[in-house]
Structure formats: C-alpha cells, structure tokens
Design brief:
about 350 residues, alpha+beta, SH3 type barrels, 5-stranded antiparallel β-sheet, two-stranded antiparallel ribbon, 9 strands, elongated
C-alpha cells in the first residue's frame, strides 16, 4: 500500500498531538505568524513614504538606490515563504541550508541593522550642524524590524510564541546544516635520505673489466728461466706460458707471449663482463636497472607529491603512470604534461 506525503504529514501531526496539547491560531497560521505578517504589512506600507526630510518630494527607500533590497525586500520574501509554508506544505521548505524560520531571522536582523545605520548617520550629521536628515519613516521602520527580530530570533524564549517551535517533527538536516567534521592534522613529511652518488655512465662496466684478468702479468718472469738447471726448470702441466721458455743460446727472440695469444682472451673476458654485469660489477649494474623507466599501475588513487610533500597530481587505477626512476621505497613519476613528483606508497604497484 502506497502512503502519500499528505498522509504521512497527517500521521506525524496525530503523533505530535498525542504528546503535546493542540496549537490554536488564526486560520492556518499560528499566533506568532499572524503577528509577524501584521508587522510586515505595516512596514511595507510605511516604506513608500519619504525617508529623508519633511518634504513630500524626498525619495522613499524604493527610489534611493538598491537600499530597498535588504531594508524591505528580503523581509518581504521571508514573510512570503512563511505564508507559503502554511498554505502549501509541500512547497519550499528551506533557502539554501537555512530553514524558513532561520532565513526570516536573518532577514529581519539585517533590515533592522540597516535602518539603524540610517538613524546613526543622521545623528552624525546633526553633530556637525547639518541637521537631522532622517524622517519619521526611518524610526517606524526600525522599530517594526526590531519587532520582527523579536518574533523570529527570540520567539522560542517568549511564552506566547514558544509553542510554535515545540514538538516539531524531526527531519534529516541539509548537508550544509549538519555538524562539521573534525579537522585532522596533516602528517609531517619525512624527507628521504639522499643516496650516495655513483657513476651512472653505461661504460662503467666496460672500463672496470680489464682489471679482472690476472694471467698476463706472469710473462715478465720468463727471462729468469735460462739461468736455472735443466732439472729445476721443469715446467708444470698447468703452466700456459711454458712454451715461451727458450735456451740461453737462442735469446735472439724475446721470451714474451705473442699479442695474438693474449688479446683474444682479454677481449672475450671484457665482452663477458659487459654481457653479464652481475659477475664482477654489481653496484653499477644495480644502479642502471633502478634508473630504467617503466610503466606502473596503482590499485587506488594516490597522490604524487613534490619534495616538501605538497600534492602535485594524482594517479589512479584507470591509467598507467610513467616511472622514470625507482628509488626502492619511492618512485619518481612523470605526468603527461611534464610535471615530476614522488610516489611514497609503492605497495601493490603493478609494473608494466
């Protein structure tokens, strides 16, 4: 069974009437609303009379600029909304984040202050000997708007009008009228420690490779072989340079290994070090792999911050991000427009 809004309002009124005594007024309006409407009618009629001087040709509030907007225009809108709320319960119920009664309180308070401002300026002119400019209209409007403040702002404290605010049904408040959230302090940014500088040139492994071979320095020891006895100079089976030892009477040829026998081995070892850097030059190879750019995909939206922790842009799971440097716990990410920032939360990142 579908229950309409009118039936729901009737059920709410019946529940309220069971707890509180009935509220009587004039027709559909309460006593407070009738008094407020009557106050506005008098203020609206008086606003057409001149507000400066005793002359009938002086301008009224409607013809002196836009002062009428806040002095009489906004209170008129507030009274209209109060009447519309009774005549059409499903009509306008709030103005922005303010309820109709709250809006009426603000409207009459602002109007009373503006009428008081006109009176204050007239007293200032009188102090300088220029005469009191405000007419009787300003006095009447000020006290009428002050009565409107009493009927809106202080009405819940006055016994005859407080009944209009009791036992009202509870409704969900507007988003802007709800209690504010607690503001959490921003976490302190921990600056990452700089890593030691290293040689990032791609030729670091090739330059370090020639230091590995230890066999060629044994060649200068060959000239000492002719001075040894035949039994003492017996070469071992694993000596690669035994064939270079010659008798003393044949010293016309220097006892050194030919360059063709050494250079291929050195070249092969250098090539192996370049092809497999992890064999001897591990730090240079590890640094090169850290600076290789790759694509990364984060599981949720994460902030990319600058060096002091201020967010620069965000990356999410809907698009791949370009990582130009991997620092272990921090990724250096570059945006499409050229901006560069740091990703400190690298957990769950998918590399592409």
């Amino acid at each position: 069974m579908i229950v309409t809004d009118e039936k729901q309002d009737e059920n709410i009124d019946e529940a309220v009437s069971a707890e509180e005594p009935p509220q009587y007024g004039v027709g559909p309006f309460s006593i407070r609303e009738v008094a407020l409407i009557g106050t506005w009618i008098v203020a609206f009629v008086v606003s057409f009379f001149p507000i400066y001087g005793p002359f009938e040709s002086a301008p009224s509030v409607w013809t002196s600029g836009i002062d009428w907007v806040l002095t009489i225009g906004v209170p008129t809108v507030a009274v209209f909304l109060i009447a519309l709320r009774r005549l059409s319960p499903q009509g306008i119920r709030r103005v922005g984040s303010l309820g109709i009664d709250q809006f009426a309180s603000v409207a009459f308070s602002v109007a009373a202050v503006l009428w008081l401002s006109i009176l204050w300026n007239s007293f200032v002119q009188l102090a300088f000997g220029r005469g009191f400019l405000a007419s009787w209209v300003v006095w009447v409007e000020f006290f009428l708007m002050l009565a409107g403040v009493v009927l809106t702002v202080f009405a819940p404290l006055i016994a005859p009008f407080a009944q209009d605010f009791r036992a009202r049904p509870e409704v969900v408040a507007h988003r802007n009228a709800r209690p504010v959230r607690r503001v959490s302090p921003r976490p302190a940014y921990v600056r990452p420690e700089p890593e030691p500088e290293a040689d990032y040139t791609p030729y670091a492994a090739a330059d370090a490779a020639p230091a590995a071979p230890a066999a060629p320095p044994a060649a200068p020891d060959a000239p000492s072989a002719p001075f040894a006895d035949d039994d003492a100079a017996a070469p071992t089976a694993g000596d690669d340079f035994a064939t270079t030892v010659i008798p003393l009477d044949e010293q016309s040829v220097p006892p050194v290994a030919e360059p063709a026998q050494i250079e291929p081995e050195q070249a092969r070892e250098s090539f192996e070090h370049v092809e497999n850097p992890s064999s001897t030059v591990e730090p240079a190879a590890a640094t090169t792999s850290q600076h290789q750019a790759f694509w990364a995909l984060v599981p949720e939206d994460r902030d990319i911050v600058d060096e002091i922790g201020i967010p620069v842009f965000r990356i999410g799971p809907s698009a791949w991000a370009l990582v130009i440097e991997d620092r272990g716990e921090v990724f250096v990410v570059r945006h499409e427009d050229g901006r560069i920032g740091y990703l400190h939360d690298v957990s769950g990142v998918t590399r592409g």
